[in-house]
Amino acid sequence: MVAADVVQAPNDKQQLEPMLGKLAELPGELGKVGELLADNGYFSEGNVNACAAAGIEPVIAMGREAHHPSLDERFAQDPPAPENPTPVEAMRHRLQTKAGKKRYALRKQTPEPVFGIIKSVIGFRQFMLRGLDKVRGEWSLVTMAWNLKRMFALAGAT
Questions:
Q1: Handedness of CA 38, 3, 113, 140 (dihedral sign)
Q2: Over 90: is that where the pLDDT of 88 sits?
Q3: Hey, what's the torsion of the CAs at 24, 29, 30, 36, to 10 degrees?
Q4: Degrees (nearest 5) of the Cα angle 11, 20, 143?
């Protein structure tokens, strides 16, 4: 994890732009973010436009997808690209293509397992402290533990 925060907002729509700001502040040695995968909770036209303005290709779900698409849907040709699309129209088209669906599916194996591992392997299931600042500090420690665990695992792979 390269950026994390804890907020008291009931949904995630207002969290994307501040996170883009945190990503922009990261050292250049870490590389440049080229794509942002996010679930439907982060979708808004403003968030898609903010990603585009930051030079990041958004891949944000625009609604719920059926778990079991029909055969016709599975094997349908990609729709034609719109002419002069807005960032939202371009993203909608990208999500309807086979390549876009594959990119969005990476959410299942990239960010989502992190939270499962934090819960089951690290054993963090609830905050022990109270107050937003203390919870932010606690979450910073948890994410640091995750990063150390991940670095250790990656160092053993080389």
A1: negative
A2: yes
A3: 40
A4: 75
